[in-house]
Amino acid sequence: MAQPETAPPQMAPAPVPAPVTPAPGVRIDGLTVVYKTSAGELPAVRDVSLTLEPGSITGIVGESGSGKSTLALSLLNAVQPPGRIAAGSVEIDGLGDVVGLAGERLRKARGAHIGYVFQAAQNSLNPLKTVGKQLLDLGRSHDVDDLRGLVREAKELLGRMGLDGARVLDSHQHELSGGMRQRVGIMLALVLNAHLVVLDEPTTALDMITQANILKIVREVHAERGLTTLVITHDIGVVAEVADRLAVMYGGRLVEQGPTREVLGAPRHPYTRGLIQAIPRLVGDIDEARALPGRPPTLATVPERGCVFRERCALRMDICETDDPAALADGPRIVACHAVGAKERT
Amino acid sequence: MITATGITKTFKQRGGVLAGREVHALRGVDFSIAKGGAASFIGESGCGKTTLGRIIAGLESYDGGEIAIAGTPMTPLRPKQRQPHFRKIQMIHQDPYSALNPTRTIHQTLQAPLALRARQTGRSKQWMEERAAEVLSLVGLDPGSVLSRYPHQLSGGMRQRVVIARALTVDPEMLVADEAVSMIDVSLRLGILALLKDLRERLGVAVLFITHDVATARYIGDDGELFVIYRGQVVERGPVDTVIADPVHPYTQSLLSAIPVLHGLEEPGEQPVVPLESLDESQADAGCLFARRCPFRDERCESELPLLQVTDGVPQEHACFHPRSRSVIARPLSGV
Asked: Residue limits of the ABC transporter domain (chain B) (predicted)?
């Protein structure tokens, strides 16, 4: 039986603990991740540089095959074979370059420093064990001595998110609704006191009202616990609601990044523009919205040389065929486009 | 084309502690769609919208009410007799990845229904080939490059077009599209919606559109009707743009308030409505179905069930004792 959830307005006001560990900063530099295929090693993420400021929420937006999930997994150094990190570094404050970590040190870093809420949080729980048992497994595998304390912390977190902690810990996954499971996923990511949290498609397959609830929780928990948060999504609306900074991925490249409101209000890269124009809107002239022509590239169809977006681009020039546009900074905004670069410089 | 009156459907829980408990998936839903018309149903998961789509497509039985397809009532007919009628109504599922057989080329996928059609009408193999190419062109695909491919060689958007092409092989009069774009990449979504609108205009195919994403409902045609369904009851209905711009039922207002605001491009509505609790099917059925979650309920709402009605000064039908306009949806920022 689904247990009744409590919506935010009725949430018990939780004590706001002063963050013990300051939110870590993350510097991804020149990261390239390749997958081994019959056609050789193909890059899913190519030469990506991205800085997550301590205490910020960054949103990465991309369509299927853009490399956004691979990029997120790189933060945990968890890219599975046939994939591997081929170049670049991921520096996390207090942890160093995770690309160099391996074995036991890497395992401890996950969970204790980095919490990951997986894309399929709806399906990432063990159907045979109660949530509480899975929590204890997590505690034991990370050598937590005070398991009672862990359970207390878990209940507090669940309570903070509007759930009855004791009942949820006693439940199997099939007894929880999608929105409740998503909150359990967030609890498991935070309960070991991680201060860097990655949420991969946190609201996919959830209803609008549940989605709004989860996004509110993400924002509040982020602020209260002093986190650095990375949200990966295909949905610009999700990023618009939670993220301070927005990064747009296409064909394994970061094509544009900047403060969310600025990027949405005045997108510069032709892909970002097209993507925003393609969103069905509630008001206004419906003929203004337009699908992007063509389709997103896959691992096999990403061009080896030149701009990854050129085949769908209205501003294509000769140089786009041969040269990969560099990511150029203009204040807080970074754009990788020959057409935009030329215009801005002159 | 199709008229549904008072459709009801109740599911009984089968095993477990809830055995025998009844879930009212549909509590008397009325609607009709003309040839080439459009109707959209929106609501949370579990509200009954998918069940309605399955019933209309003939994939699920109904307990009460009547469906008339092109004037012929279905209830008096035996299941076998209903078949040719329901064949005019084709379903487009949410997931284009599982809707196509991965071991068959697109050519093989289209030939199966065409062979049936050819047998029935005594047409040739030549006709089947021509028709396959024709339906692919209708959905904006190039037959030459697509026919020999397997589903995994196509993008999600192309697969959904193939699914629609397959539905068109039987010359349907209506398509039931259940969350048909929610798994399609954002940049391609609008293309599929535009295709549905185009099929309405060019072929006169009616569309029953089922979604939780309200904005997409506008794109299959602004002449369509929007139905907001909650726990099996239609709580608000009217022209798409009227209901979106000026909703009066607190449930519609909650749904619209929950849509993410594109900060930088839009500003949030001034009077967002947040429901008090989340959907709980085990709630008692006395009074308004939304009362427990409604921030504006009063005593009457807890004891009496409001029915879909028209009241003074409200252009759309609604099932609320206290209909009131509230500014809930985001507005475009001026100057952007």
From this structure: 2-256
Q: Calculate how close chain A gets to B235, using CA atoms only, in Å.
A: 17
Q: What is the ipTM of this complex?
A: 0.86
In a domain, B167, yes or no: no
Query: At a CB cut-off of 8 Å and minimum separation 6, what does B220 contact?
Result: B38, B40, B177, B193, B196, B197, B200, B207, B209
Distance of alpha carbon B29 from alpha carbon B6, whole angstroms:
5
pLDDT score at B69? 95
For B46-96, how does the pLDDT look when each residue is reduced to its tens digit (9 = 90+)?
Answer: 788 999 999 999 999 999 999 999 999 999 999 899 999 999 999 998 888
Q: How far is CA B237 from the centre of its chain?
A: 14
| Chain A neighbors of B45, CB-CB under 8 A | 178, 207
Taking an 8 Å cut-off on Cβ atoms, the answer to whether B264 and A237 are in contact is no
Task: Verify whether the Cβ–Cβ distance B185 to A234 is below 8 Å.
Answer: yes
Residue B231: alpha-carbon gap to chain centroid: 15
Query: CB distance A212–B260 less than 8 Å?
Result: yes
Tens-place pLDDT, residues B138-188: 998 999 889 999 998 888 888 999 999 999 999 999 999 998 888 888 888
CA distance A131 to B304: 40
Handedness of CA A257, A260, A262, A263 (dihedral sign): positive
**Among residues 54-73 of chain A, which lie with CB inside 8 Å of chain B?**
63-64
Contact criterion met (CB < 8 Å) for B193 and A280: yes
Residue numbers of the domain that contains B296: 249-307+321-336
Cα dist. A151→A2, A79, A123, B72 in Å?
22, 30, 22, 62
The Cα angle at residue B156 between residues A269 and A245, in degrees rounded to 5: 35
Nearest CA among A290, A320, A318, A293 for reference residue A305? A320
User: Do B32 and B56 fall into the same domain?
Assistant: yes
Instruction: CATH number of the domain at B51, please.
Output: 3.40.50.300
Residues B332 and B275 in one domain: yes
Q: Where are the beta strands (DSSP E) in B198-319?
A: 206-211, 225-230, 233-239, 266-267, 317-318
Whole-number pLDDT of residue B157: 85
